[in-house]
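FW: tagging you since you asked about this chain on Friday. Here's the raw sequence from the shared folder, copied in full. Didn't touch anything.
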Amino acid sequence: MTTDTTGAGGGAPTFYTVREAARILRVDPATIYRAIRENAFPAVRVRTRYIVPAAAVERMAAEAAASGSCVDVGRMTVHRRLSDGLARVIGGAV
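HL: got it, structure written out here
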């Protein structure tokens, strides 16, 4: 069984499997799964399977390169959740 994770144009992938994301980030897949279950890592659940948005991995890498410091994915997740919650309360985008 093959999984097509490429974008519509056949270029860069839109999603990575957890194993692919782990390989890119140089961590064990269990680390990614654990972070996903703790809601500290971006992922999409399709039934029993998780896929990781390629844009999220690229954004993490870009932020680390631009800031020159450690990127805390958990902190990014909390910030996103707070922004989403605030947007719901005030009825618009933050």
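FW: Strands lie at 15-17, 44-46, 49-53.
HL: agreed, and The chain has a mean pLDDT of 83.
FW: great, closing this out.
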